[in-house]
Amino acid sequence: MSSNTPKREWRFYVDDMILFAEKVQRYTQNIDQVAFINSEPYYDATLRNLELIGEAATNIPKTLKQTILKSLGDKSLPPVTKLFMAILVLIMILSGAL
Questions:
Q1: Considering its fold, how many domains does the chain have in total?
Q2: Is residue 59 domain-resident?
């Protein structure tokens, strides 16, 4: 990125992360673990998109990351939301973004 290029807003990185997660979901649906592991294109594409989620997570503001961590204990949130947030936190930890 050149010094004249404006920094991309963090919200766009969240959109990217959602897109990458949707790809992972498509690549892994209707396939069992053995078939997935033996399917090099699906396996590689899935790993790459998980890497991209981690890279995008490094651009999420620290305050938002802290809010996500605190929200995991919120009993009013639907379980699926908590699951998504937990996965996001795990990916951020693994990528070094948290």
A1: 1
A2: yes
C-alpha to C-alpha distances, 73 to 61, 85, 88, 97, nearest whole angstrom: 20, 11, 15, 21
Could you read off the pLDDT of 54-98 as tens digits, one per residue?
888 888 888 877 777 777 777 787 777 777 777 777 777 766 766
Give a yes or no: residue 61 inside a domain. Answer: yes
At a CB cut-off of 8 Å and minimum separation 6, what does 35 contact? none
Do the Cβ atoms of 46 and 24 come closer than 8 Å? yes
Cβ–Cβ under 8 Å, residues 53 and 91: yes
In this prediction the pTM is: 0.66
- Domain extent for 25: 10-95
